[in-house]
Amino acid sequence: MNSSPRLDSEPLNGNSVACSLFLFVLAEKSTKKRLTRHKIYREQMNITALEAPLQLRPEASWVQFHLGISRHGLYSRSSPVVSALLHDMRHFPTISADYSQDEKALLGACDCTQIVKPSGVHLKLVLRLSDFGKAMFKPMRQQREEETPEDFFYFIDFQRHNAEIAAFHLDRILDFRRVPPAVGRLVNVTKEVLEVTKNEILQSVFFVSPASNVCFFAKCPYMCKTEYAVCGNPHLLEGSLSAFLPSLNLAPRLSVPNPWIRSYSLAGKEEWEVNPLYCDTVRQIYPYNGGSRLLNVIDMAIFDFLIGNMDRHHYEMFTKFGDDGFLLHLDNARGFGRHSHDEISILSPLAQCCMRNEDPTFQASQLPGLTVDPLGSSPTLRSLSVFDLTNQTSALSSTQLQYRGLIISSESTKPSRCRWVRRKAQQSVPLLRLVLRALDRRLQIVLETVRACVEAHGERSVVAEGAAEQSAPDPGPAHLAR
Ligand SMILES: Nc1ncnc2c1ncn2[C@@H]1O[C@H](COP(=O)(O)OP(=O)(O)OP(=O)(O)O)[C@@H](O)[C@H]1O
Ligand SMILES: [Mn+2]
User: Fold this and answer.
1) What does the DSSP assignment read for 40-78?
2) Which of 8, 83, 109, 228 stands 20 to 30 A from 283 (CA)?
3) pTM over 0.80
4) Do 95 and 230 fall within a single domain?
């Protein structure tokens, strides 16, 4: 188990969030030298300074997002914070940019033992916005409508920025609320990254391509070639912004290897791939031998099957919520790669853990967005219509709006770019329909799997009544901030 560095810290409260904000400002103020150097750099580069207003607002959407995290999920069902946060992440100017911690590990700038799996090819940046909120920026690496080639291994698959966005909306529709809010944005890599970053290494990896576009790449020990760079057009680069979780100091998280992890080598096979009774072993081992952890892993498998994500090597949890806290569905960039193929192996935790007796496999409330009727002649899904393009439910229109968010956010940009984005969006409409069809199809497979289990072992031993949270022996604190 790969645990986060500070498991023993005090519970997070509102004061400590405010305190950390002030510490941040103090830290920023105290690094005068660095700022001076940066100022000189900006003057040399003839860059107009984007001065950050040192104003911290406790009502800032990202602060409210952090304070609203509870043992039931990252935000509450009716939380107004999410839309405010999405708006702010899309519109607020950046005041700084840096590599993420795991990318820094590759540069020797931090302790590699604290990093789950450093990845250099996946260029991503941490952007700080003018309200001091942070977001993880994943740039567009391939055309939106491109399917992953059949011969690609999942671990060399591209990261898809739009998969991060779509996964957030699907997770929200399913009522899991375990994916940090994510939004699309056109980032001006010159103004919003190069001109605001204090990281000299990041500054040094910028270059202008033969087509006069501004590009940059990750400094990494392998595959550091300009063909792996990302480029603006000439400055604007489409990407996803995911809201940052509270820092590990304030809200420690565990990173746990997924028991159904895949082999990250060309020929290797993991035990779950060859042993159909693998779940019986997992079920006997802490923490999967009690509480709702195994059910949560099954939730995650269902989510991953729906989005087609084979890259769930670890999951993270807030330590404060204990063993039965929710699993964070972080990093969904390898979802939605192939709408024409359903990867059944992702459902293995659900299929293999179909229980024969005692402990029921499913909580009736497990898929809160779904009405699971495993014995019904045709499995029904309360929110099936949200995936149906012809059925305009409010949930659907919000999803579409977000898919179209990239177009909306481009309206303020240059006309040529607007036309380009609009053309792309038009091209992606048939794709959207294929993805929605895949979701419908996969949902039927999930419900079919549950039904087969019920048919084999009887409903009473498969489906339990009551919420998983209520059955937890020690529910722990309800709120991250209390
Ligand atoms: N929204 C977030 N807030 C805070 N930390 C995050 C967030 N998203 C990701 N991280 C941290 O950054 C790490 C890397 O992120 P992510 O997995 O999305 O990128 P990646 O390039 O796919 O990396 P890897 O190859 O390690 O999976 C995560 O394991 C997590 O600890
Ligand atoms: Mn990843």
Assistant:
1) HHHHHTTPPP-PPP----TT-HHHHHHHT-BTTBSS-TT
2) 8
3) no
4) yes
Q: Tokens at residue 434, please? A: 């294929």
Provide the pLDDT confidence category of residue 218 given band limits of 50, 70 and 90.
Answer: low
| Domain end position, chosen among 243, 269, 288 | 243
| Both structure tokens of 475 | 């529910």
Residue of minimum CA distance from atom 13 in ligand 1: 102
| Complex ipTM | 0.94
> What ligand 1 atom has the least distance to the C-alpha of 311?
27
What is the residue range of 79's domain? 57-243
Q: Residues 305-352: pLDDT tens digits?
A: 999 999 899 999 999 999 999 999 999 998 998 889 999 999 999 999
What is the distance between the alpha carbons of residues 115 and 118, in angstroms, rounded to a whole number?
6
Is the CB–ligand 1 distance for residue 383 below 6 Å? no
**Catalytic site positions:** 311
Pocket test of ligand 1: the residue of 4, 66, 136 to mutate, having most ligand atoms within 8 Å of its CB, is: 136
Helix (H) or strand (E) holding 167: helix 161-173
Ligand nearest to the CA of 218: 1
When mean pLDDT is compared over 204-208, 216-220, 410-414, the highest value belongs to 204-208
Residue 282 and residue 231 in one domain: no
Beta bridge partners of 464: 363
Pocket test for ligand 1, best of 126, 165, 177, 330 (most atoms within 8 A of CB): 330
Confidence at residue 102, expressed as pLDDT on a 0 to 100 scale: 66
Domain end residue (candidates: 243, 264, 286): 243
